[in-house]
Amino acid sequence: MQAMPLPIPAISKETLIERVPVSFETERLLIRRTCDEDAGPIHQTILESWDALHDEMIWAAEESRKDFARTAEFIRETQEKSLEGEGFTFQFYHRRESCHVGAMGLHHIEWDVPKFEIGYWLNANHWGRGYMTEAVSALSRLLIAEAGAARVEIRCSSANRRSAAVAQRAGFHHEATLANDRRHHLTHELHDTHVYVLLPSS
What we know:
CATH architecture of the domain at 13-152: 3-Layer(aba) Sandwich
Distance between the termini: 10 Å
Helix content: 25-40%
CATH superfamily of the domain at 13-152: Gcn5-related N-acetyltransferase (GNAT)
Strand order of the largest sheet: 1-2-3-4-5-6-8-7
Structural class: alpha+beta
Number of helices: 6
CATH topology of the domain at 13-152: Aminopeptidase
């Protein structure tokens, strides 16, 4: 059933930015915005999961991303973007074991809607345990409840079945498939893009 249009609240961009969560917890995870002290754990995760990340993540196509200096530079870049409301990244850690589990980002934000797109990646050592679904589900619902999101999207290649499964398990519904929308960053083969969406009425 098609969702009914929602009234757009008269809230400023600055207020909405303030409502994007800084940190929160789920049953098993501590999730917080990326900060300087995350450099070491992120770098270690990248090294441990490089083969998997290299195949699936565009940003991991460059070998330079294995350098610690590039990780520190990424943190500086994401902090600058968050101050301007252009994007946010979050790192998440296991609450009991205190190990770095993965990351999420908010991209292509349209504050006048407001609309967010969530991207994510996971330490390969923690695949198959439901951590990503737990994190994405919590963040997307906080965006709707706290930041007034009218639409939260997840977009993934038709070849990335794990990412699509996370979206489905987190309650997003498949809205569209964009044919021949992208090329794989390594093979350059044409892939479709699946668009999944979560609305306040979902």
